[in-house]
Amino acid sequence: MIPFLSITKKLKSLIISTFLVIIMISGLQLKAQTPEAEKNFQACKVCHNISGPKLIGPSLSGILERRDKAWIYKFVRNSNEVIQSGDAYAMKLFEENNKIPMPPHNLTDAQIDDIIAYINNGGKVAAEYANAAATEKVSAEDQMAAEQTAQDQKLADMKRDANRNFGTPFYITIAILLLVLVDLFVTKIIKAKFVHTVIILISLFIIGEITYKEAAALGRQQFYQPDQPIWFSHKVHAGQNQINCLYCHSGAEESRYAGIPANNVCLNCHSQVRQGKITGTVEIDKIYKAVETGKPVEWIKVHNLPDHVFFSHAQHVKAGKLDCVQCHGDLKNVDVVMQVENLSMGWCIECHRKTEVQFADNKYFEAYKDLHEKVKNGEVKKVTSEMIGGTDCMKCHY
Ligand code: HEC
Ligand code: HEC
Ligand code: HEC
Ligand code: HEC
Ligand code: HEC
Ligand code: HEC
Q1: What 8-state DSSP symbol labels residue 68?
Q2: CATH fourth-level superfamily of 33-150
Q3: Fewer CB atoms near the end CB (10 Å): N or C, the chain?
Q4: Residue of 212, 392, 397, 398 to mutate, ligand 6, most atoms within 8 A of C-beta
Q5: Residue-wise pLDDT tens digits, 195-224
Q6: pTM as predicted
């Protein structure tokens, strides 16, 4: 009896300790292969393979043999800072990768550790997570769909507001005018004729005013949002992948035109990135087709000023130090570009009157010696574009 008992006891403890070891091992795996790491790595995946060919950036397997963790933390959070600091490795890497900036990622040390572990595991999630990961993917898609609907809704609201501005008062005024005319000639309820006269004059004035405004707006195209030949999304590029506007619109700092990037700029990345999350290969294939046939993509111009107006990007972006957002809206959150401002003369002038120019230490305005003097002795508190000629007709009209 007794030996048998001790065997079962030993067996018991063996089983228990085996369990413990299994739990510990799977516990270790939990740490290294969490769905969170996989989710965070989605943002890296478009530019990095774990092993296999280089995409936009180098493949990341064996990264810990090349760099220590402290460096990786810094580089992932803000690669530009590391390159600017003169780090020789980073500068060389940047050159070798066609000077394509790696966008900043707002991740903690722990999250980056997790990603590194995931990379070292060959990019796999432990089996017990597979289902959970699938559900998360679905909810991420739901969220994207919800964002899209919110964006569409906002756009519809803006368009409706713009139309409502004039539409409703216009029809109400016409209705009142008709009523008064009917009363004047037919029903004759209101006895005092001067009441009719006053109402008729006011109505005519309002109708005239609205018609004039509508006519003046005729050449303008606020909220114009044409479909483009390729479904190019600013949200995907400038938003999610944080590519700098000037990477594609390099003219904006130096010249009158911001410019639309040529096919070979797209190829810098799309020689490797052959598929998009939203449109698959359909839209990106159009880039290759355009390159093959040698025909430039026929982008439809969204913003159009009349020929008699002079406008220069350099003057606003470099000298005026304005952000693109101030005139083009928040394109980082928009898939299809839309003209959000009306580009009227009133819009230009209003900003020239209001906006304080960054006057001090700006070599573009060195010539204004008198004004600098006045700023210095406190006579002038704030310099606007208007004060340096920004509302002269000749500045904007040929
Ligand atoms: C838009 C493309 C892009 C994305 C997204 C991206 N990277 Fe990069 N990454 C690059 C490029 C390009 C380089 C090469 C350095 C350069 O050009 O700045 C690089 C370099 C690196 C390096 C150094 C590689 C080496 O061999 O020394 C690490 C580490 C790295 N990336 C990690 C990440 C991680 C982690 C993520 C996701 C959180 C990520 N990257 C997302 C483009 C990207
Ligand atoms: C002060 C307002 C303003 C600012 C700031 C501004 N833009 Fe523009 N942008 C315009 C106007 C107005 C047009 C239409 C010009 C025309 O039709 O001649 C335009 C047109 C464009 C075009 C298409 C035509 C072209 O010029 O090649 C692009 C692309 C563009 N802007 C990008 C940018 C980017 C990128 C920035 C930031 C670096 C920026 N813009 C800053 C007002 C502005
Ligand atoms: C600096 C790198 C870079 C440049 C330059 C670039 N792209 Fe992209 N593009 C990307 C990345 C990263 C994605 C995201 C892939 C994904 O959805 O996973 C992408 C996605 C796309 C998609 C698919 C969007 C989707 O989600 O379905 C299209 C279409 C596209 N790009 C067109 C262009 C065109 C046209 C140009 C040139 C005007 C261009 N791209 C320039 C990096 C770039
Ligand atoms: C990867 C390249 C790329 C990046 C980055 C990019 N754009 Fe563009 N942009 C394009 C292309 C291609 C078009 C033409 C197709 C279209 O209108 O969507 C365009 C069109 C525009 C237009 C409309 C021009 C017109 O026809 O009037 C504006 C304005 C603009 N971009 C501003 C910006 C701003 C602001 C940013 C930064 C937040 C930015 N872009 C980042 C490629 C890019
Ligand atoms: C968001 C504000 C803003 C808007 C909108 C704006 N501008 Fe400007 N503009 C500036 C600033 C700031 C400067 C730089 C100060 C300066 O040179 O007067 C400037 C300068 C200029 C200049 C040079 C003036 C000079 O003194 O040499 C011209 C021309 C000009 N803008 C034309 C336009 C036109 C045309 C539009 C409308 C289509 C426009 N701007 C819309 C802010 C704006
Ligand atoms: C800051 C730039 C700017 C200045 C300064 C400016 N304009 Fe304009 N003007 C515009 C723009 C932009 C348009 C075209 C958009 C529109 O239809 O409102 C325009 C349109 C016009 C038109 C055509 C009317 C129309 O509705 O199409 C006339 C006429 C005109 N301006 C006269 C003047 C006169 C006179 C002055 C001097 C008192 C002046 N402008 C100063 C930017 C300017």
Answers
A1: -
A2: Cytochrome c-like domain (1.10.760.10)
A3: N
A4: 397
A5: 899 999 999 998 888 887 776 666 667 888
A6: 0.72
